[in-house]
Amino acid sequence: MAFCFMEGNEAVAWGAKAAGCRFFAGYPITPATTIYNTMLEILPPGGGICMQGEDEIASIGFCLGASMCGMKAMTATSGPGISLYSEQISFATGSEIPIVIVDVQRLGPSTGSATRGADGDIQFLRWGNSGGIPLIVLAPADVKDCYLLTFAAFNLAETCRCPVIVASNKEIGMTRENIDLSALALPEIVHRNTAPEDRPYLPFHTSGENGVPDFLPIGCHIPVRQTSSTHGPDGYITTDPEIIAATQRRLIAKVESAVEDFTCHEFMEAPQSETLILTYGVSSRSAKAAYHQLNRAGKPVSLLTLKRLWPAPENLIRSIAAPMRHIVVVEMNMGQYLREIERVLPNKRISFVGKMNGALITPDEIIEGVHRGRQLTE
User: Fold this and answer.
1) Predicted local confidence at residue 297, as pLDDT
2) Can you give the pLDDT at residue 377?
3) Which residue numbers in the chain have pLDDT < 50?
4) CATH class as words, domain 266-377
5) Virtual CA dihedral for 289, 293, 294, 295, nearest 10 degrees?
6) What is the DSSP letter of 265?
7) What pLDDT sits at residue 198?
8) Which of 7, 53, 178, 284 has fewest C-beta within 10 Å?
9) pLDDT tens across 277-287, in order?
């Protein structure tokens, strides 16, 4: 499979397969269903497993069980389903179970509009689990990103044994584009470290600098304990404050260190520009058109498209924004990532272009937002 015409959801499935995914479970939901359909076509012929759960909760549970047995697993859903995933995301976080979760966002709240896109889940994806431990969230902007970032999501999940979320959007997931898969440069496939079987196994003991425990699958001849309760390195439940605190610090540190060198983004710089458009996801398409129109008109702007949203790439944002007088945040919601930019850049003039009504943000709306923000800084 080389040059082909596929939608973003199909690219997610093929990227997962390329990364070594051999288990998928999901429940049909617009606009994520074609990920399930594609996995149903491509996994079983190669010995993989694709199954439908009776609901979203069961589907992600199947995936966690498969991961605990050593398989690379993925599930996919949209807004109502990601809400139901919350408890299992917390389980995967606290029990260090690798899984890739694809959220093809649609207009909410609740059932919302199943056939209209939005980026309304962005804050939920970061904070929608008990405990507040950081989650890794990647945001594709096109079909190529869907393939590459899904591949990267598996590597990150295996590297630090945690859930990784791909935050897509109906407009990305169901838009078809040409893509040459044979021309894509992929990194090496990462697998979780296997614990040696010649000594007693402590399921949450860490010996390396990355703070990630070695892995043995449930069902092997060595007992493997797993629990969703607070636990020590041996996997037994504990209420010891010092042990709990050490585990919490480790869970945070391992995620932050894993993404330290994975600051995935696209930066289009214009000489002498004092305005930076900052965006992610499908809105980057309109932002690129606005970037070109403004620069051709002699009103230079630069453009930063983030493709890793959480943990927020704070150093990158500060570095690129340093020479700018004015930041314009563009997103398909009412200002969810705007809050993060205001936190990271407290001394910058920041304006916002966004809406969540089922319509895409247009280049003209972004250009108008740039002009309006510039007037405020003058």
Assistant:
1) 96
2) 62
3) none
4) alpha beta
5) 100
6) E
7) 79
8) 178
9) 999 999 999 99
Contact 181, 1 (CB under 8 A): yes
CA distance 264 to 254: 18
Domain with CATH 3.40.50.970 in the chain: 1-262
Q: Residue 349: left if φ>0, alpha if ψ -120 to 50, beta else—which one?
A: beta
Q: Which of 109, 44, 69, 339 is nearest to 220 (CA)?
A: 69
Tell me how far apart the alpha carbons of residues 213 and 185 are, in angstroms, rounded to a whole number: 29
> May I ask the CATH architecture of the domain 1-262?
3-Layer(aba) Sandwich (3.40)
User: Under a CB-based contact definition with an 8 Å cutoff, are residues 204 and 213 in contact?
Assistant: yes
The pTM of this model reads 0.96
> DSSP characters for 165-185?
EEEEEHHHHT-EEEEEGGG--
pLDDT for res 263: 80
**Residues, the chain, total?**
378
Question: In the chain, which residues fall in CATH 3.40.50.920?
Answer: 266-377
Structure tokens at 198: 């010649």
Alpha-carbon distances, residue 157 vs 42, 91, 136, 189, 297 (angstroms):
22, 14, 9, 11, 44
Q: What does the alpha-carbon distance between residue 143 and residue 145 come to, in Å, rounded to a whole number?
A: 5
Region of residue 78 (phi > 0: left; psi between -120 and 50: alpha; otherwise: beta): beta
Q: Which helix or strand (DSSP H or E) is residue 332 part of?
A: none
Sequential DSSP letters for 113-172: BTTS---TTHHHHHH-STT----EEE---SHHHHHHHHHHHHHHHHHHTSEEEEEEEHHH
Pairing of strands 265-268, 302-306: antiparallel
Dihedral of CA atoms 157, 158, 159, 161 in degrees, nearest 10, equals: 70
d(CA 142, CA 235): 41
Q: Quote the tokens at residue 67.
A: 């991961």
> What pLDDT is stored for residue 374 in this prediction?
75
Q: How far is CA 308 from CA 225, 288, 298, 369, in A?
A: 33, 18, 31, 24
